[in-house]
Amino acid sequence: MQFKDIVGQHDTKKRLIESAKSGYVPHAQIFCGPEGVGKLLLAIAYAQYLNCENPSETDSCGVCPSCTKYRNLAHPDLHFVFPIIKKAAKKKDVCDDYITEWREILSEQSYFNFNQWLTSIEAENSQGVIYAKESEEIIRKLNLRIYEAKYKVMIVWLPEKMHEHCANKLLKIIEEPTADTLFLLVSNAPDNIINTIQSRCQRINIRGVEKEDMTDVLTRKYGVEADIADNIAHLARGSFHKALEIISLDEEHKAFFNLFVQMMRASYARNIKQIKTIGNDIAAIGREMQKNYLAYCQRMVREYFVANLRHPQIVYLNAEENNFGLKFAPFINERNVEDFMTELALAERHVEQNVNAKMVFFDLCLKVTMLLKR
Q: DSSP letter string over 29-85?
């Protein structure tokens, strides 16, 4: 992975390159920012640049033996940690058991999210976690000698998913790592990482991709017409992953919209039979998808409330969502919007706590019925 392969993020790239050139390379760093902006790719490109045998002023060379191994994600001094699920039947309980799937998704998609990763490893209803046993693997790997690189690099994707026992076992090695060892943590929610790890890392805040950079790539690389690319970049709100979803007419996104419409119509009509059916349908899609759906609902409530202000430049809806909102948006108003968000967030928390999903969504629809009448 080279810096030139990453969309936008010019300031962050410049900062990382200056760090490498100056020799000031903090041994533990957290790359923080929204989902889909290229944080993981920046961490890999930074590690590749640090270990490149012939780096230029702006990027790694891409052709030396070290860069070739980095491109294949198979450098002996590059290690990855990421959330997984346990599969006792297949004896899969550490990240190395999933390294083939990890390399495949990074090579094929680059910009992917947590749910896509879980789908690729057939997680179904399981929630991805970095288990306590992983700490033993990390310590073992970092105590090995460096094979051939300048730096031994441990990239931890989504450390907020780390089991508390795993996190606590890593405190000492993060604070006092072996020589020439780098920890690069990549987080969507850094405040959910335990404070003792946060305090041992330098934080690098990464913003969303600039609209101009996104529009340029969409037109030049993906052949999207300029006006359409501009609208997609607006809707994506800095997430290149979101932009790619919009281009591909993401099936999950369309399914969420259809469920949202059905849920709102059934709740408004007080159709208990249909409400029960919708609750059962949502309960069948898996826990992570349910959480994603509730997050989508919260976004829709926000967008429809803002749509009432008649400022389209701050509304982020596609054509289908906007058409539905022409009639629906007035039902989201100052009398119910806060309670809408509270009930959706409460349902998301209940899903995380493994409350019976049919009960959660049936109850949510009944509450929506009352809120829509305000």
A: EEEE--TTSSHHHHHHHHHHHHH-SS--SSS--S-SHHHHHHHTT--TTEEEE--B-
**For the whole model, what pTM was predicted?**
0.71
Phi, psi of 318 (to 5 degrees): -80, 180
Fold assignment, 3-205: Rossmann fold (3.40.50)
Q: pLDDT (tens digit, 9 = 90+) per residue, 185-229?
A: 999 999 999 888 888 889 999 999 999 999 999 998 888 888 888
Report the distance separating Cα 217 and Cα 164, nearest Å.
40
DSSP strands (E only) in the chain = 28-32, 78-81, 152-157, 181-187, 202-205
Count of CA atoms in the C-beta half-sphere (13 A) of 290: 32
When the candidates are 3.10.450, 1.20.272, 1.10.287, 1.10.10, the CATH number that belongs to 253-372 is: 1.20.272
Distance CA 164, CA 132 (A): 8
Domain boundaries along the sequence of the chain:
3-205, 210-248, 253-372
